[in-house]
């Protein structure tokens, strides 16, 4: 038998899809599938019935749908049993290069064996496949920082499936740690670390458990969480370190700049689609 899920489907104009995606991520969604159509995009969001009541979820969604600018978004809901999740992912998730020289490949692909240049993941629910622009932006910045020619430590806050931590591992960052407060996502990340020969990467359940400072701090999470964790993120950043922030849209970049530029200097602001990543460094950094 499969597992029951609350399933919310949203058909949205492409002009609204980025804001809808951000909103859904803020609801602690277990997984999101995206399907592009000619003039609209269909987002299917999955919620665990053990954690969420469907009626309460509808009330949360109404906060978004009631806004005039979102009036063209159409929503439908159901609770259904899914036993072929992996099969549905196989239709669209194929190997791809996340940064030059490093490929992400699902476990079901032929020759899906971890190697120096290949990361193998079992996506399960959508805790991170590397396909989202913010993941690609962060991976690209990790790759850029790795070219400084010195061994550097890194921590990935909100690691999800662990992809960014594994990219860092392939690029010779050491030591590497990860933080993930969702126990299901943390378990998936740990499995992926072991699958790729990186069992030394430990997943901490909360940023308060981090007891050292890192040369590179990566946080690909929502604006509200970045704001909430500002002081904790700064406390785990080593002198001459870099902090890479994403999970934000372009119109949220000014908020991040105001929050983090009080003590750090903005070094890069990269964009992909409607998404941004921002890299800050301490004043004494190059």
CATH class annotation of the largest domain: Alpha Beta
The averaged pLDDT comes out at: 86
Helical segment count:
9
> Which series of helices and strands comes N to C?
EHEEHEHEEEHEHEHEEHHEHEE
The fraction of residues in strands falls at 25-35%
Radius of gyration, in Å, reads 19 Å
Sheet with most strands: 7 strands, mixed
| The number of domains | 2
Please mark out the parts with pLDDT under 50 across 5 or more consecutive residues, or reply none: none
Task: Let me know the CATH homologous superfamily of the largest domain.
Answer: Vaccinia Virus protein VP39
Q: Report the count of strand segments.
A: 14
Q: Termini separation (Å)?
A: 56 Å
CATH arch. level architecture of the largest domain: 3-Layer(aba) Sandwich
Query: Which strands sit side by side, in order, in the main sheet?
Result: 10-9-8-11-12-14-13
Which structural class do you get from the secondary structure elements?
alpha/beta
Instruction: Kindly state the percentage of residues in helix.
Output: 25-40%
CATH topology of the largest domain: Rossmann fold
Query: What is the 3D shape?
Result: globular
Report on this structure.
- The protein is an alpha/beta fold.
- It has 2 domains: 3-83, Alpha-Beta Plaits (2-Layer Sandwich), CATH 3.30.70.120; 91-281, Vaccinia Virus protein VP39 (Rossmann fold, 3-Layer(aba) Sandwich), CATH 3.40.50.150.
- 29% of the residues lie in helices and 33% in strands.
- The chain is built from 9 helices and 14 strands.
- It has helices at 17-25, 54-65, 85-90, 133-146, 163-170, 183-195, 223-228, 230-235, 253-260; strands spanning 3-13, 31-36, 40-47, 74-82, 96-99, 102-106, 118-121, 154-157, 176-179, 202-204, 214-220, 237-249, 265-272, 275-281.
- A 7-stranded mixed beta sheet has the order 10-9-8-11-12-14-13, with helices on both faces. The chain has a 4-stranded antiparallel beta sheet with strand order 2-3-1-4, with helices on one face.
- Strand 13 and strand 14 form a beta hairpin.
- Helix 4 runs parallel beside helix 5.
- The longest helix is centred in the middle third of the chain and has 14 residues, at 133-146.
- The chain is globular and about 50 Å long.
- The termini are far apart.
- The model has no long low-confidence stretch (mean pLDDT 86).
């Amino acid at each position: 038998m499969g597992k029951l899920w609350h399933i919310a489907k949203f058909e949205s104009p492409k002009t609204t899809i980025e804001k809808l995606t951000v909103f859904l991520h803020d609801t602690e969604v277990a997984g999101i599938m995206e399907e592009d159509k000619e003039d609209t995009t269909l987002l299917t969001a999955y919620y665990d019935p053990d954690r969420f009541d469907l009626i309460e979820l509808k009330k949360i969604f109404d906060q978004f749908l009631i806004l005039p600018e979102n009036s063209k978004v159409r929503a439908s809901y159901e609770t259904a049993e899914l036993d072929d999740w992996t099969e549905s992912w196989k239709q669209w998730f194929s190997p791809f290069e996340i940064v030059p020289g490093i490929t992400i490949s699902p476990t079901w692909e032929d020759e899906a064996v971890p190697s120096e240049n290949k990361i193998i993941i079992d996506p399960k629910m959508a805790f991170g496949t590397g396909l989202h622009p913010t993941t690609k932006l962060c991976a690209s910045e990790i790759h850029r920082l790795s070219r400084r020619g010195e061994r550097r430590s890194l921590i990935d806050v909100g690691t999800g499936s662990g992809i960014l931590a594994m990219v860092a591992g392939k690029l010779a960052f050491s030591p590497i740690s990860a933080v993930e407060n969702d126990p299901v996502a943390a378990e998936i990340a740990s499995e992926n670390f072991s699958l790729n020969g990186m069992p030394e990467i430990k997943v901490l359940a909360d940023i308060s458990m981090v007891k050292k400072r890192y040369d590179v701090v990566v946080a690909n999470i929502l604006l509200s969480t970045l704001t909430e964790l500002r002081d904790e993120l700064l406390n785990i950043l080593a002198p001459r370190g870099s902090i890479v922030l994403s999970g934000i849209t372009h119109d949220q970049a000014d908020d991040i700049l105001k929050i983090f530029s009080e003590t750090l200097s903005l070094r890069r602001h990269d964009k992909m689609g409607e998404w941004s990543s921002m890299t800050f460094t301490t004043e004494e950094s190059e």
